[in-house]
Amino acid sequence: MKLATRINSFLPKFNNDVEEVLQEFNRLGLTHVDFNYPEHVETISAKKMKGILQANKLQANGVALRFRDEFINGELGNADQRISMKAIQLCKEACDYCREVGGEVVTIWLGFDGFDYSFQIEYEKVWNQIKDCLIEITDYAPDLKISIEYKPFQPRAYAFLDSFGVALSMVHEVGRENLGITLDYCHMLMKHENPAYGASILGSREKLFGVHLNDGYGLNDDGLMIGTSTLIKTIEFIYYTKLHNYDHAFYFDTFPVIEEPVAECERNIKMIKKIDSIIDRLGMDYIAELIKQNSGVKVSDLVLEILI
Ligand SMILES: [Mn+2]
């Protein structure tokens, strides 16, 4: 299993030094790293970062775009063409950095493309603009996977790419093989989506390019430790990633604010390994057969077996 976690959770404890954080990742047994672009790499060239990764027996999973400041009224879909072009440029630079550090996936979360008011944006124009931007970015880096991470809201009242269905429609319209989707477990709960449903459809179509694990209660991006709130849903989600041989990193997108970050991450690692071993103990075929029975009461039996 390729495992990664959120650098920002560790930075305050490690002198805000990415290199120190990566040393700790290695000690913890994590295998992969996702860098926020540009914030985590501004002062470290790709060549130097590659050396730091190698020294710590880590591999880059990829980079994740972080848009700030001038993008607060929209990134790719901004009504101001100059800002939209700057957003594209930032994505292209992220692709270059990703390639140079040996990563495979560039994750794009359009946190500011969205709206807060009725009559605020031209939906069709924004849709077409984001589509054209994604075509330009995917064609710029055909050797990399470009992955849309959607979220229903926050910071905008409504995100533009807000759900599994909308994101998949966009992927289909863009029509590029190297465009896919990152499923963030908490974001799915916020939209009242069942995470496993997304993993099944995207996994079966080779469009599952990223998995962010965490847990929550659905009303907010809680970022709790994995398996602590909706364990059965998490087990179902992981089952489908295994079924479809998902082979990028599982990224713990959790927010230890009160908890000590190293101790918190250790629990995430223990939990995903435990879930993986429970699925192996039950057997993929056994679970597949149970699902075929299409029976609620058999699900209750399965939960009891999980608890053994
Ligand atoms: Mn995420």
UniProtKB/TrEMBL annotation:
Pfam families: AP_endonuc_2. Gene3D superfamilies: Divalent-metal-dependent TIM barrel enzymes (3.20.20.150). Residues 27-274 form the Xylose isomerase-like TIM barrel domain. PANTHER family: HYDROXYPYRUVATE ISOMERASE. This is Xylose isomerase-like TIM barrel domain-containing protein.
